[in-house]
Every structure is written in structure tokens, then in C-alpha cells.
Amino acid sequence: MAQSRPRPLSPHLTIWRWGPHMLISILHRVTGDGLAIVGGLGLTWWLFAAASGPADYATFQYYVWRADEADLAGLIANYVSRIVLIGLSWAFFQHLFSGLRHLVMDMGAGYELKTNRTWSLVVMAAAVIATIALWAYIFTRGAH
Amino acid sequence: MGSGTKVGKVRGLGSAKSGVHHWVAQRFTAIGNALLVSWLIAGLVMLPSHDHGAVAGWLAQPIVAVPMMLMIVSVFYHIRLGLQVLIEDYVHDDGLKFAVLVLLTFYAIGAGAVCLFSVAKLAFAGGPL
Predict the structure, then answer these.
(1) Cα(first)–Cα(last) distance of chain A, in Å?
(2) Considering only alpha carbons, which residue of chain B is nearest residue A48?
(3) What is the DSSP letter of B19?
(4) Fewer CB within 10 A of the end CB, N or C, for chain B?
(5) Interface A:B, Cβ pairs < 8 A
């Protein structure tokens, strides 16, 4: 039973030429995990702050959105939180649209090479467009 | 695939008979999330102000608090199922895998409970407005 050489392994990421179907697959996992950890903790912080009263909610709002002009650390926190919020919204749209694609594929449709490639690209483009549209709306409307 | 040999089942190597439930529950919660998280984002964006009074008053309404609670359950259930797959794919040491799955379960149920309690408190206290 002694093996003279290592058993062959199935080819992994490094051996394939990258295509949209691979990118969308790994993005589904990455965005899902990001939403699960960062999004889940953020949702919890927001709701807990709201339930804790106006003072605690003001602290939450201060660090997430509107620190004093003179408070450098607060402003940096605001910039980071905006990047995180924009990132979370993109992750949500990407995971949502990619998830809808998976529901279609669960029914056995969309596996033909061209169809699969087209919808992978459509989903990724739609997620970016939806993110831009959301934040364009928020910023043109005036942030609170 | 099959369900394994008899001795395999005894050793815990056969089908656990729970894979289908995980798969179906992941998709049911996915549909719930698609509807309810979209609703939350739309609701938040349309709020005239995001000060405490406005947010707490909004969350306190039954028509908001109920879908919010449903969303929390659907989201954290989906988080539990999704991160479980990640852990099972990348953590191969049995002891470590068990520990991380315990941690994940505590996170999903714990954070979900904090969220549910927070919404319930706002809803039952009436919320300032």
C-alpha cells in the first residue's frame, strides 16, 4: 500500500485561465463573508445604539458619519466608515444579484458556456451600477 | 454518493442526512434576505433624518418592527449557514473546526438576539417621537 509518489490532486485556481465565471464565484463567497462579519456586526451596533438611547446613538453617528471638523481622528473614522458602507452596499448588490443567478442555476438553467459568461458579466456590472446609483442618490439628496 | 456502508455510518462517515435541509434553508433565507434587506435599505434611504428620534420612531412602528425582526432572523440564519460552509471548506483540523463552528453559532445567535431585543425594546417602549 506504500505510495511511491504523491497522489494526483484536482487542478486548483492557479492552473486555470481566469474568466468571469470564476471571478463571480469567488466574489459571491468574499462578499457573503464580508456581509456576514462586517455587515452583521454593523447592523448589531446600529440597532443596539438606537435601543440604548439618544446619547449612545449620537456616539454611533459621530464616528460613522459626522465628526467635528476639528477632530482629526473622528474625521478619519468617518472616511473609513463611508468606505466600509459603500463597500457593504456593493457587497450586498453583488451577493444579491449573484445569488439570484444561483437560484436560476439551481433550476438547471444557464450552464451553456456563452450564457454563463454573459450573465456573470451582467451581474457584476449591475452590482457596480446599483452601488453608484444608490450613493449618487444619497449624496445628491444631502446626507444627514 | 449513497449513504455509506453500515460500518461507515457507525463511524460517522455515512451521510448525516442533513445536507438537504442546509441547502434548502440557505435558499429560503436567501429569498427572505433579498426582500427584507432591500426593504431596509430603501426605508433607511427614504428617512427624512437619521437622528435618534427619527430612527427610533421609525423602528418603533409595528409595520417596521415586524419586518425588521423577520429580517434579523433570516439574515443571521443565513450568516450561520454561509459561514459554516466557509469554515468546512478551509478549516481541516477537527478540533479547531468544532471550536470555530461553536464560535460562529454563538455569534449568529448572540448578535441576532441583541438585534431582536433592540428592536423589541424600541417597539414596546414606543420610541421617542
Answers:
(1) 70
(2) B118
(3) H
(4) N
(5) 80
Q: Which residues of B16-54 are buried (b: 16+ CB within 10 A; e: fewer)?
A: eeeeeeeeeebbebbebbbebbeebeeeeeeeeebebeb
- The answer to whether the Cβ–Cβ distance between A96 and B27 falls below 8 Å is no
Which three cell numbers, joined as nine digits, stand for A42?
Answer: 454593523
The structural domains of chain B, with segments of one domain joined by +, span 19-125
Select the CATH number that applies to the domain covering B19-125 from these four: 3.40.640.10, 1.20.1300.10, 2.40.10.270, 1.10.3720.10. 1.20.1300.10
Whether this prediction's pTM lies above 0.95 is answered by: no
User: Measuring CA to CA, how many Å separate A140 from each of A136, B43, B117?
Assistant: 6, 17, 34
Question: Dihedral (C-alpha) B108, B114, B120, B121: value to the nearest 10 degrees?
Answer: 180
- Minimal Cβ distance to B83: which of A33, A57, A103: A33
Q: How confident is the model at residue B14 (pLDDT cuts 50, 70, 90)?
A: low
CA distance linking residue B66 with residue B60, whole number of Å: 9
Closest alpha carbon to A59 in B8, B52, B40, B36: B52
Which residue in this structure is represented by grid cell 427572505?
A: B32
Give the chain A residue whose CA is nearest to the CA of B65. Answer: A47
The ipTM assigned to this model is: 0.88
Q: Which domains does chain A have, with CATH numbers?
A: 20-141 (1.20.1300.10)
CA A129 centroid distance within chain: 14
Which residues in chain B are contacts of A96 at CB distance < 8 A?
Answer: 33-34, 37-38
The per-residue pLDDT for A7 is 79
